[in-house]
Amino acid sequence: MAIDPKSxxxxxDLAYRESGLQLVVEKASMxxxxxxxxxxxxxxxxxxxxxxxxxxxxxxxERRQMISALTTNVSHFFRESHHFExxxxxxxxxxxxxLRAGRRFRVWSAGCSNGQEAYSIAMTxxxxxxxxxxxxxxxxxxxxxxxxxxxxxxxxYPERLTTGIxxxxxxxxxxxxxxxxxxxxxxxxxxxxxxxxxxxNLLSNWPMKQKMDVVFCRNVVIYFDADTxxxxxxxxxxxxxxxxxxxxxxxxxxxxxxxxxxxxxxPTSYRPIVAKR
Length: 277
Known about the structure:
This protein is α/β, with parallel strands linked by helices. The protein has helices at about 5-20, 30-40, 45-55, 60-70, 80-100, 115-130, 145-155, 165-175, 190, 225-240, and strands spanning about 105-110, 135-145, 155-160, 175-180, 180-185, 195-200, 210-215, 240-250, 260-265, 270.
C-alpha cells in the first residue's frame, strides 16, 4: 500500500503547518511505514481517505496522532554532555548565592522526548548543589507528542533507555524493579519534584508568563526549514533572562546570531546580547 503523490502532498503540507516538520518525497517509504498503523486505527486502507480525514475539521484528534507518529523521538541521558558540564560547572556556581537569597531558576527542555534530557538536567542540579531541591527551581519539559510527555511524566525507564547514566547516579537517583521485559528504573521523587511535563507545539503560542534562565532546544529545529528556525530564535531571545543560555543540538546553528539577539558562547551554546546603557 503506497502513498499516492496527492495524498503525500496534503499530509506534508499539513505536517508543516501544524508542527514545522519537513516531509520530503525521498522519505515517502518511511512516512508510509510510520502512518500505516494510523490508517488501521481509523479503519481505512487508503492514504487518500486518511489524508482527507486529517485535513478536515473532524480529523483534529487524528491530526495530533499523525504528528506523533511522524515525530522522531530519539534521546538518551546526558546526551551531548558538554551542555550539562557547562550548566554544572559554570552557570549554577555563578548563581548559587542569588539562589540562596531567593532568586528563582527556570529551565525549559523544549522537545523533551521521553524525558531523559529533563532528568539529566535535574541530576546535574542536585549533584552540583543538593540544596537546590529546596530552592525555587523548576524544569519545564515539553513536547508536541502526548505519548512521550506521558512516558516522561511516568519516570519509568526500561534498562535499554537508561544508557548514559553513570552507575553512581543510577544507583543514587533511580530504583530498579522487574518489568515485563526486564529491569525497569524509576526516577526518585527528588528528580520528579523538579520537573513539570506539558504538551506543547513549539510553533504555537507559548504559555510561559515568566522568563527562563536556560533553554535546551536540542535536535528539534533540525527538522524545520530555515524560515521556521529564523522565526523561533527571536522568540527564544524574548523568553530568556539577560544572563540566560540557549543550547542547541550538535547539528544545529543560528546562522546569524546577532540578527536574533544572540552571541556564541561555546559549541552550540548561545547567550542573549545585552544592550549597553
